[in-house]
Amino acid sequence: MQLPHEKIIREMIEDDPVVQELLAEAYNEARAQGYLRGLRRSVLNVLRVQFPVLAATPQVQQAVASIQDTDTLEQLFEQMLRVPDEQTARIVLGLPSE
Length: 98
Fold this sequence. Notes:
This protein is mainly alpha-helical. The protein has 6 helices and no strands. The longest helix has about 35 residues.
């Protein structure tokens, strides 16, 4: 059961275009952050399957976590699907060769 003041507050929020715009911005930001997390996870999953030892290194974790651009992460994901060997993966990730 909703209390009277809760109903008034809800109506104020629903009717206020500034509040609605702020909520929309927050929602879009949360979606974008979720998409970034999913892309990062996908890149790391591909690496875990193809190069498990490399994927477990802190350098790889940090390199992938530091990417904030969705286009860059999407491109990295596609590249990781195609890299022929661990050395190439290291180059693509910008890591030193071993």
